């Protein structure tokens, strides 16, 4: 017996490293006419490295102390930036004290108590609003962001202590994937990111994306998708983080990056890229379209 086209398309997608969760999803993938991509871990490799450790002028902390406190607070987090911070501390042989009272806010950062000190690590604009009277945080962050790096602020006992610069690379297949998706839908994908506009625009341009929405919280990503959907578009969302889950749920079809994706993203998505190749997304859309033409 021959397999129905949508089922053999699912098997075919599997050979390309994509787990499509149902025949209904396999069918919906071919209906999409707009694409929204997450940045960190989706358009980029998601294995960012700490490139700069900068205590703020007047901070009593050394570079090593600053990095150790940040890494201790980040250790329980599954965010790619958190892993970069912990790796940098380990590479330098730093001892990481245990963190208590860990909490994370998707799209913002983390907080924890480390050696009796309250440590917050995250987006400078969100953590320093009240505490950057002289603009030192904003200047240091802007300097890092101009070159496409993500600036992360470390706040200790309520006072900004320093910044970390974190550099991530575009996936090798990012530009080809953007081009293929543009051909399939007739329009370039949009980039939805919680990161700062400077770093986002820098990376997006390299990948061939000009429509960049930055500084978004998880609910803002979802709202951007809903806006496209209510304008009649069928939106394909590709993401990896906890912060992408609401957008993945709101999408016509949600696809999660599987290798380093958060559990919530994998559960919420309709399909999962298991082999970590972004280019499998347009391939799977094309497989769906072919199968749909065979379904009578
Ligand atoms: P993206 O949308 O690009 O995947 P996120 O929404 O996950 O990015 O994060 C947005 C911003 O929030 C980051 O650029 C960073 O400034 C901050 N942030 C989020 N989680 C963390 C974390 N665990 N450590 C440090 N910063 C974080
Ligand atoms: Mg992400």
UniProtKB/TrEMBL annotation:
Chief localization: membrane
Keyword Transmembrane helix: yes
Keyword annotations from UniProtKB, A to Z: ATP-binding, Cell membrane, Magnesium, Membrane, Metal-binding, Nucleotide-binding, Translocase, Transmembrane, Transmembrane helix
Cellular compartments annotated: Cell membrane
Domain of life of the source: Bacteria
Signal peptide bounds: none
Family recorded in the similarity comment: Belongs to the cation transport ATPase (P-type) (TC 3.A.3) family. Type IB subfamily.
Name this polypeptide is given: Heavy metal translocating P-type ATPase
Native source species: Streptomyces olindensis
Shown part of the complete sequence: 306 to 601 of 661
